[in-house]
Design goal:
The structure is a homodimer of 311-residue chains.
Chain A lengths: L2 H6 L3 H12 L3 H9 L8 E6 L6 H14 L4 E7 L17 H4 L4 E7 L7 H15 L3 E6 L4 H7 L4 E6 L6 H12 L2 E4 L7 H12 L10 E3 L8 H18 L1 H30 L2 H12 L5 H14 L1
Parallel strand pairs in A: 1-4, 1-5, 2-3, 2-4, 5-6, 6-7
């Protein structure tokens, strides 16, 4: 039986194998995803993001259990763009999910950054497709931090849960623009900690500046004690219903696809340039000349661009 | 008197103006940076990075004061890749630095992400050059988070200080690979908090796996009380001396330049493709077809690549 059949029958090993092939940029994997693209679009994709230390893994863990109790099939992709590692349970905090990963209706996968030209967002999009074909009802995409890479990653999602935590201090102001852009639903986790109410008030005040029709709901959670999880599940459902009834669901999927296409083109073009046109040694030598002030980076760039266009 | 002269005379308004021109991708600004490239290379560039809530701004504030007391000229670039805002004191936490920004030997600037094709790393490189020409002895580059964008940003620096904080929990494991890659000097700030010793032990254990000759020193700081700042200044100096004596200083500057050139080419090529070859509407329509499952993202990407090559 081949990978295509196994995948559609919900074989977890086939899922793991195909995601690895995608990460290795195996052309056969993309041919399979092309062929099976009409089998995608059924899974609901939920992004879980927020600063390190917010307890995102534990919260994801509890949400997964809540959906399992509803009889759903659930998948988790845990992404660390700063990690070169990939696959299995390499991320330390994923160990906590071990009791879940043996559940027949759960598939869990860690992904790191492969290759220096980026591509983590591309890999995430492809892994979501694999898990969609596999038959997951819900796919969680969990990030480690909250920066530009993480924003790019959650641009693959239908609903994004922004997990905040008390004690961020003034940095909450600094990450404001980023979190306002991507959070559909907010959770303040570790809400039993000192300062939780203050954090809630600050985030609530930020959300008042939100100009969209949808005003992100704010839930207090203590994931480790399973507190507030039901409310969070309700908020996610509320957002999903709103998106589907308003027609914004399809608009977002079109926008997400647009982002995906742009990312794909970016990476393929860059691979083409740096694999074929310019070898490492050449750029190394030019860099030495820049440091010696024989030339400057802008002139080097213009010369290279000129050569690319001539070819 | 023109911008070029004013800049070299250390006029702060000229510095601010030129950084704005660089952010706006004004060709005249890059022509000026080309011309004055032989005036660069004198400033020492220090990256300050770490997770949100670690107190990086306060720590930077104290380090700036320490160098001012040595009679040095200091500049700070505070970068938030998730923020679309730029310039002035827009980031809330920069307000704390107001007493510094009026000091004649200090220049402070916030930078956000401009444009959807990235370029924050490119903007940082250019701003560093401007401040170098202006005559800064030390340039601090402070990031908001700790993700791939932040790693790209500190690849412009000579010494990178990784600021950690107690209470990160299991996420410390997840960010491990990222912080090991870029930290030359470690500070555990808010070291008067519970769990500081545990965090120190965990990071110390991580540093044991470091295979480089240089073993990053670890300093405990309470920036808000000015505790441990002297030790941190000493650690930075120690790293600087090591790099210069071992010849790694020049190697790193060559590598940083290489990164800069690669980033420049990436952005210029992408601008070329998305500005000229493909307009937004075309990609929008193709995205709709993907969502309707008429085609798939990989086929769309291949078709576009084919068209680009034919032109």
């Amino acid at each position: 039986m081949n990978l295509e059949q196994k995948l559609q029958e919900g074989n977890k090993r086939a899922v793991a194998r195909l995601i690895t092939l995608v990460e290795n940029k195996d052309p056969a994997a993309f041919e399979l995803l092309k062929k099976l693209h009409n089998k995608t679009g059924n899974a609901y994709v939920i992004g879980i993001t927020g600063p390190p230390g917010a307890g995102k893994s534990t919260l994801t863990d509890k949400l997964v259990k809540a959906y399992l109790n509803e009889g759903k099939k659930v998948a988790v992709i845990a992404i660390d763009p700063t990690s070169p590692f990939t696959g299995g349970a390499i991320l330390g905090d994923r160990v906590r999910m071990n009791d879940l990963s043996t559940h027949e209706n759960v598939f869990i996968r860690s992904m790191g950054a492969r290759g220096s030209l980026g591509g983590i967002s591309e890999g995430t999009s492809a892994a979501i497709k694999v898990l969609d074909i596999y038959g997951a009802d819900y796919i969680f995409v969990e990030t480690v931090g909250v920066g530009q890479s993480e924003i790019d990653i959650v641009k693959n999602c239908d609903t994004t849960v922004m997990v905040m935590v008390p004690g961020l201090g003034d940095d909450i102001q600094a990450i404001k623009a980023g979190i306002m852009e991507i959070g559909d639903v907010f959770a303040i986790n570790k809400a039993d900690r000192e300062g939780a109410k203050k954090t809630a008030r600050e985030i609530d005040a930020m959300l008042d500046y939100n100009s969209n029709e949808w005003r992100p709901p704010l839930t207090m959670t203590v994931a480790v004690n399973n507190e507030g999880i039901g409310d969070l599940v309700d908020s996610i459902k509320e957002h999903r219903d709103y998106m589907q009834e308003s027609g914004l669901f399809e608009t977002r999927r079109i926008n997400n696809t647009k982002n995906e296409i742009v990312e794909l083109i970016k990476h393929r073009v860059l691979e083409h340039i740096f694999d074929n046109a310019y070898n490492e040694e050449k750029i190394n030598n030019l860099s030495k000349e820049v440091v010696k002030r024989i030339t400057d980076p802008y002139t080097v760039c213009e010369d290279i661009m000129h050569n690319i266009k001539r070819k």
